Amino acid sequence: MGNSLLISGSDKTIAALLVALLSCVDCVPLEGDTLCGAEEPTTYSIVFTGKWSQAAFPKQYPLYRPPAQCGPQLGLRHVEGQRLCQQRHA
């Protein structure tokens, strides 16, 4: 019973070939379908609301400002060759 999870050598070869084959497959629309049906480009809006104020930090404002606590990624690009955002290093 405990050996039922073991895979034979030929099964490993078939699995490896299947994975290699599937990694080469690309998603394509079915006949008659289009990739995108939108008539106009999509527009996104990002609103930043800062919490750094004298009311929120009465003892620290404006003498000490804690470091930012956000991730490096703000957005993603949808079109190859166009950047939505870019992180710059000093």
Automatic annotation (TrEMBL):
PROSITE patterns: SPONDIN
Signal peptide: 1-27
Domain spans labelled Spondin: 32-90
Record-annotated membrane-spanning stretches: none
Alphabetic keyword roster: Signal
Domain of life the protein comes from: Eukaryota
Gene3D superfamilies the record matches: F-spondin domain
Keyword Signal: yes
InterPro entries associated with the record: Spondin_N (IPR009465), Spondin_N_sf (IPR038678)
Pfam families, sorted: Spond_N
Descriptive protein name: Spondin-2
Organism expressing this protein natively: Ophiophagus hannah (King cobra)
Gene it is expressed from: Spon2
